[in-house]
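--- STAGE predict ---
source: upstream dedup step, 1 unique chain passed
mode: sequence only
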Amino acid sequence: GATSINKLIERVSGSKATIYAMFGNKERLFAAVVESILDGTESFVTADEVKGLDLREGLIAIGG
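--- STAGE serialize ---
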């Protein structure tokens, strides 16, 4: 299922204001997570290629 910002806040003990100040919205947060993952791996997929995809589609694009 979809991950809510509230669940994320609970998990990281942060605040909604901080998340939105840093990333603007869930889509940008997701893109940052994907980019962070890709930075540590050799991949043929770029963050731009998964931009706009939902979580499931993005992970499939990354993992094949």
